Amino acid sequence: MNREDFCRSSSLFNTDFRTTDYLLFLPLSAEVNEIMSKVISSGPLERPDWFKTGFAAEVQGKRFSRFLGELYKSYYNKKAGMHGPLELLEETRPGVDAIAIICNEFEIDFFRIFIDHIRELVRSEGYYLYTSDARLLDKDGVEVLVERHYLKPSVPIQLQEANEQMFGNITLEYVMRQGRADHVKILRTYYSDRAFAAPRSFGELIDLITEIGH
User: Fold this and answer.
1) Cα(175)–Cα(183) distance, rounded to whole angstroms?
2) For residues 53 and 71, which has the higher predicted lDDT (pLDDT)?
3) What is the reported pTM?
């Protein structure tokens, strides 16, 4: 796939959209709610060579570091009941922690680099990539492209003691609507029964993701 085809696959419309319209994607559950959506196509998520070449340069750049700093500040401001530089949605309930970052200012490829960066950070912490996929959905006549990485901890199961689960299972989901970046979801699910040790906190995961930005 060349650059033109890659961009066209995620530039489905040129019309405006409302960044507050998240009926398809909330509540923030482990899977995008596809009950009322038609899956047009799906398959493995692959990055072209030109994208891989530019990945390292973008991650090491000042813009990327500044964005991670804004994410760090926005997350902890929201926990304290204050506004931050970025618009975030948050969900916390038993077994689930998640945030959605509203993508207002950056081009499509920036957030592809962002979720790939998180994927590699999490792998460096002892996770393995269970799957990466892309789905093209139809929601009430609007085509939506969803790119996802799903990672699990590389921890052997112990029968005689509580199992280590690290952060739990991690889903990174990037949603594009009408040819524009819409939101990125960072979600972790974990076990709370006695067979598993308590997971590391979601705040620690955010700290790991944003480390080079603060």
Assistant:
1) 5
2) 71
3) 0.80
- In sequence order, which residues have a C-beta less than 8 Å from that of residue 171 and are 6 or more positions away? 30, 148, 149, 150, 151, 185, 186, 187, 188, 189
Residues 6+ apart with CB under 8 A from 182: 17, 19, 102, 103, 144, 175, 176
What φ, ψ does residue 207 adopt, rounded to 5°?
A: -60, -45
Encode pLDDT of 151-189 as tens digits.
999 987 776 678 889 999 999 999 999 888 999 999 999
SS3 at position 86: coil
The first and second tokens of residue 30, run together, are 């482990």
Q: How confident is the model at residue 50 (pLDDT cuts 50, 70, 90)?
A: confident
Residue 32 and residue 156: Cα distance in Å, rounded? 29
Q: Strand 142-153's sheet: what is its strand order?
A: 38-44, 127-139, 142-153, 169-177, 180-189, 96-102, 88-93
Structure tokens at 17: 């959209």
Residue recorded with tokens 């401001």: 77
As a dihedral over the C-alpha atoms of residue 97, residue 103, residue 105, residue 109, rounded to 10 degrees, the angle is 110
Tens digit of pLDDT for each residue in 95-108?
Answer: 999 999 998 777 88
Tell me the Ramachandran region of residue 126: left when phi exceeds 0, alpha when psi lies from -120 to 50, beta otherwise. Answer: left
DSSP summary character for residue 196: B
Listed in order, strand segments (DSSP E) in 31-179 are: 38-44, 88-93, 96-102, 127-139, 142-153, 169-177
Domain boundaries, the chain: 3-213
